[in-house]
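hi! just following up on the protien thing from before. the input was this:
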Amino acid sequence: MFPYPEQYRLAAPPLITALMVVWSLLSRALLGDNSPFGFYPLFMLFPLVILLHGHLIWSAKGVEKLDQSIYAFIHLSLAFVVWTFAIMHINGHSF
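and the predicted 3d structure came back as:
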């Protein structure tokens, strides 16, 4: 189903989290404070991370489901904090 090796599949959620950080830094610099075009990708990227973790859990076999669930719990907890601060950074001083 996924054409890439296992390492790429496992690294996709943290890479998307890093993309959130890069996007928030670039969009505020280029678009200014409180730009709706800066917010929309962030609102799509965090649910994508959730779906990718769900796919990793679903496709795992046996005890690996528990491993993937723990990985998802830890990463989603950290990614939510990163996502929140990325939204706050894009919002800037307009609040």
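The chain is about 80% helix and 0% strand.
The helical segments are 6-31, 36-59, 64-91.
cheers
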